[in-house]
Amino acid sequence: MTARLLHLVGAAELGTLVVMIAVFVMHSLWVVLTARSAQRRLQQLRREMVRGASAEDRLAAPTSRARLRLYHQVLDELAASISGDGAQWIEQAARDTGLLDQAARWCRSRRWWRRLRGVRAFGLLGAGNDIVPACLGDTHPLVRAAAARWVALHPSPALADRLVAMLDDPERRCRLAAQDVLIRLGAQAAEPLAASLSRVANPGRALALNVATGIADARFLQPGLRAAGDPDPSVRAQAATLLAAVAGDRAEQAILELLHDPSEPVRVAATHGVGVVNSWALAPDLAWQLTDPAWDVRREAALALRRLGPAGRLYLRRALVSPDPFAADMARQVLDLPGATAS
């Protein structure tokens, strides 16, 4: 009796194992066949859409949710590589297939990853003017950063103002995204940025000055001069870099005054700024910086003198016999660099 029972149990287990293997094989086969079928449909749809984009034909509405998903996938692929008239066709196709409506629903979702997906979809498709700006104030930093990058394709003075305000964002990724887009906007961002520089608080103010340096517009002269007197050394240092980029007599005078700042980073930035101005008339000021107690300041001064050419090398050779051992040592190091001569 016991042997018969064991035999039945073994047969049942074997039967169960066979069924499981059969189910696994059939499922694997179904997955492979389904993937191949989907890939064929996807490739066919890609060809149809490329032909439609070339002929600017309207895209037929999808007949099923599966085909709608394929439409969305191919439209995302095409949007990343098509511009001009083709991009207009992509936007219209996205509208016809319901992708724009879907992206709008994602942007209004309570889940942040869906809102992020919606903003990114609008960024690819070149739409969302009435929806994405609200995402600049989203509660999640990834969504705010994605919305900031979207602004690069849809610039306006009002949105540039929003990006300037984002330079004060508590999340670093948002501040950096706003900085990158503002620099890409260039002159379009100069007016709102210049008007807002004095209102931006630290640490956003130093970052705003860095953005202004990247744009280097003459409208940043006055904000740069005001920032040169800021109590925060990081702001004064960035102001020196900005004034060097803006240039002009007033900017040059302010940089020369910062050469005597009590903060070492400010003197380093000001010395580098004098080198950026690259005027032989400033060689005596650079030569004086060779006696600065800070090694970084002396190095910036020596390199800037070398870039000035014959006039700068003359001051470096004079520094070789200076009673200040720091100045003599730095001049010797720079004159020994490849491309420099002490004669």
Please provide a written account of the structure:
The chain contains 18 helices and no strands. The protein has helices at residues 2-55, 65-79, 85-97, 99-107, 112-125, 141-151, 157-166, 172-185, 187-196, 204-215, 221-227, 233-246, 249-258, 264-277, 283-289, 295-307, 310-319, 325-335. Among the domains are: 183-277, Leucine-rich Repeat Variant (Alpha Horseshoe), CATH 1.25.10; 281-343, no CATH class. The radius of gyration is 32 Å and the shape is elongated. It is mostly helical. α12 (233-246) packs parallel to α14 and α16 (295-307) crosses α18 (325-335).
Topology:
Elements: H1 2-55, H2 65-79, H3 85-97, H4 99-107, H5 112-125, H6 141-151, H7 157-166, H8 172-185, H9 187-196, H10 204-215, H11 221-227, H12 233-246, H13 249-258, H14 264-277, H15 283-289, H16 295-307, H17 310-319, H18 325-335
Helix pairs in contact: 1-2, 2-3, 4-5, 5-6, 6-8, 7-8, 7-9, 8-10, 10-12, 11-12, 12-13, 12-14, 13-14, 14-16, 15-16, 16-17, 16-18, 17-18
Features:
343 residues; mainly alpha; Leucine-rich Repeat Variant; 18 helices; 72% helix; 0% strand; disordered C terminus
Q: What structural class do you assign from the helix and strand content?
A: mainly alpha
Largest sheet: none
Low-confidence runs: 339-343
How many helices? The count is 18
CATH architecture of the domain at 183-277: Alpha Horseshoe
Mean pLDDT across residues? 78
CATH class division of the domain at 183-277: Mainly Alpha
- Beta content comes to under 5%
Order of helices and strands: HHHHHHHHHHHHHHHHHH
N-end to C-end Cα span:
111 Å
* Backbone CA Rg: 32 Å
Name the CATH superfamily classification of the domain at 183-277: Leucine-rich Repeat Variant
By DSSP, the count of extended strands is: 0
Shape: elongated
Helical content stands at over 70%
Query: Any idea of the CATH topology of the domain at 183-277?
Result: Leucine-rich Repeat Variant
